[in-house]
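Quick one, tokens below. Sequence please?
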């Protein structure tokens, strides 16, 4: 039962963009996990830019062992 949670700066997505995200992420997850589309869930969570470091970057740093791809803007210390 894969779940993909995407946090991003706030923006308005069109229905077409949401469908494109759903299609692309679902295709990658079902292929990689060898599972059906009905087992995949996806959520989008907007995070204000001024809250990014405290809410997102802090978690990334604390859980770096889980990262598949670190952010290019992050200068690890």
């Amino acid at each position: 039962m894969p779940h993909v949670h995407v946090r991003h700066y706030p923006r308005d997505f069109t229905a077409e963009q949401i469908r494109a995200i759903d299609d692309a992420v679902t295709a990658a997850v079902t292929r990689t996990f060898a599972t059906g589309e009905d087992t995949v869930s996806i959520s989008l969570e907007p995070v204000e830019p001024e809250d990014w470091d405290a809410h997102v970057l802090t978690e990334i740093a604390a859980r770096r062992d889980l990262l598949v791809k670190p952010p290019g803007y992050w200068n690890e210390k």
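The chain has two helices and two strands. The chain has two domains: 1-46, 48-77.
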